[in-house]
Design a protein that fits this description.
This protein is of the alpha/beta class. It is 36% helix and 24% strand.
Length: 311
């Protein structure tokens, strides 16, 4: 049994993270860190206003860090140094230096560090990786992903998303990170990045759009275009190869199309459930961690290159 402490009770935590922990058969929720104790009341576990107190007093063996991005590194590192395993929300950190410090803390403490890139567990993504390995479309040469929307919903309650001091950036951090991580999962190590960031529609302190081209050591070129300035609602994901194409648009729907036909591969009802299950298996059984601090470093590296070249 893995005893969990959860830091932060926002929208994702209440809708996905806490239900996933409570449903996981080898998990037990033993505490919540929140300054609003009313948010913890429905779960019947101790509530702590400060992480330091929770780490001193709780019997937690693992910590889920579900706070705004600027808190990811300090809270994750504190959890690891206290002897706990840590699973951190995405994006991993505000910058590459912080992300590297998190990985170093994990190694020094000999504790597991996971990052919540749950799309690695989508059945269609796993299937696409199998098809690529089998040569189903020949040599992959080009991939692209888009995620277009207007400003994030419920922004009044989540104003930190447009504050660079708390979020790091706009859609590059919030939604591109997921697509970049999937590309890294499918294509391996990125070696070069070019980007363009802008906020010509919304005069925000962060970008409202970002376009990246990533070149991989496997010679695939990938394009990611994310926007908070279009109501079109695109969620496109395609991979072009020398002998065909894999289509997975929209990314969050179950359909995958390839030269061999069309497959329907629905995701789990709670997309965080496979993530939690994998992390528990990694801690208790020594199973491979599908989304680790080490794998997430590649996404933070791409983001850092995009920020450096993009404005």
């Amino acid at each position: 049994m893995l005893k969990w402490l959860v830091i932060g009770v926002g929208d994702i935590t209440s809708k996905r993270v806490l239900p996933a922990i409570l449903a996981e058969e080898r998990s037990e929720l033993v505490g919540i860190v929140t300054r609003d104790r009313a948010k913890a009341a429905p779960y019947g576990v101790p509530a702590y206003a400060e992480l330091e107190d929770a780490l001193e007093q709780s019997k937690a063996e693992a910590v889920y860090v579900a706070t705004p991005v600027f808190l990811h590194a300090p809270q994750t590192i504190a959890s690891l140094r206290s002897g706990r395993h840590a699973l951190c929300e995405k994006p991993m950190a505000m910058n590459l230096v912080e992300a590297q410090a998190m990985v170093e803390a994990s190694r020094a403490a000999d504790r597991r560090l996971g990052v919540a890139y749950y799309r690695r567990f989508y059945p269609k993504i796993v299937r696409a990786r199998e098809l690529l390995a089998a040569g189903a479309i020949g040599q992959p040469v080009l991939a692209w992903a888009t995620c277009h929307s207007w400003l994030p919903p419920n922004l009044d309650a989540r104003a930190w998303l447009t504050d660079p001091a708390r979020a790091g950036g706009g859609p590059l951090y919030d939604v591109a990170s997921h697509r970049i991580d999937v590309f890294n999962f499918l294509f391996g190590k990125p070696r070069r990045v070019a980007a363009q960031l802008s906020n010509d529609v919304h005069k925000l302190a962060v970008e409202d759009s970002a376009t990246l081209m990533i070149e991989y050591e496997t010679k695939v070129r990938a394009v990611v275009d994310v926007r908070w300035n279009s109501r079109a609602g695109d969620d496109e994901f395609r991979i072009l190869g020398t002998e065909g194409e894999i289509g997975m648009s929209p990314l969050n729907a179950p359909t995958l199309v390839w030269p061999g036909g069309q497959e329907e591969l629905p995701v789990a009802r709670n997309v965080h459930a496979p993530l939690i299950k994998n992390f528990v298996g990694a801690v208790l059984d020594g199973a491979p961690l599908a989304s680790s601090g080490e794998t997430a470093l590649a996404t933070d590296w791409v983001t850092a290159q995009a920020v450096a070249s993009g404005w």
